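Dear support,

I submitted the protein below through the web form. The confirmation email said the job was done, but the results page showed an empty box. After a refresh the structure appeared. I'm attaching both so you can tell me whether what I see now is the final result or a partial one.
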Amino acid sequence: MKKIFITGALGQIGSELTIKLRDIYGSDNVIATDIRKNDSEAAQSGPFEVVDVTDTKSMIETARKYQADTVIHMAALLSATAEKNPVFAWNLNMGGLMNALETARELQCKFFTPSSIGAFGPSTPKDNTPQDTIQRPTTMYGVNKVAGELLADYYYYKFGVDTRGLRFPGLISYVTPPGGGTTDYAVEIYYEAIKNKRYTSYIAEGTYMDMMYMPDALNAIVDLMEADPSKLKHRNSFNVTAMSFEPEEIAAEIRKSIPEFKMDYNVDPIRQKIADSWPNSLDATAAKEEWGFKAEYDLAKMTKDMLEKLSK
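What the results page shows now:
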């Protein structure tokens, strides 16, 4: 990767990924784009362009202007938000992905887009979910992700586009506020623990979901994109994981640092239904064997870091 074009650069993952890539490859070599500009570090620390991912011409012209050799497509509507407006979610998530793939095909770029644990459904094996298994999601977000995995594979086999992707679990970060995802309780709980010493979980007690700390997720993207393509048997949508826990476990870990922290429950039926349809834990063997994936953070190490960083 030498000239990297990122869509959704101000979003949940994109805002931190943009900074990491600029640190590695140089600020001028990472072109951040989003639907609007703000005063964040991602928008201000290097080239930035306002790009609507539903506008194919604008995307291709902007990527060509900067002579991009890599397209990283992060723009998407997340799970709970997508479920509230499924038609808009389909048009944005799938239309944007198609345009990003067309940009990569037109300019002969390497390509990355994330998939998600949401690509699985209630008929998927719940524990240690295999890399290759049944995928019958019951959410629009999940349908988008399965279709996206297949579409990226199609562009590789049909047009030779070097497409790559990861199936992310819930992502936890101290940098970016929650953005409408089902797993966002695991971000909100840290903010509320520090500010109010109390949190009301919208996810029910005993609900296990796979999670990952953002530094591990960012490293996984870079490692996959730099991997030898001849060793990638799966290419798109590798399972990656770091930990699996339910709300009481994360609360217990927080109490080691904030003993007075209390948590109660007010379950959101929409997000709970989504969570119940997802696996408890993923099997990341393929990612480990094909490109050396490794997560550094477990729940204890992540909690310590989150509380330290957010307290500042």
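Response: this is the final, complete result; the empty box was a page-load delay. The first strand starts at residue 4 and ends at 7.
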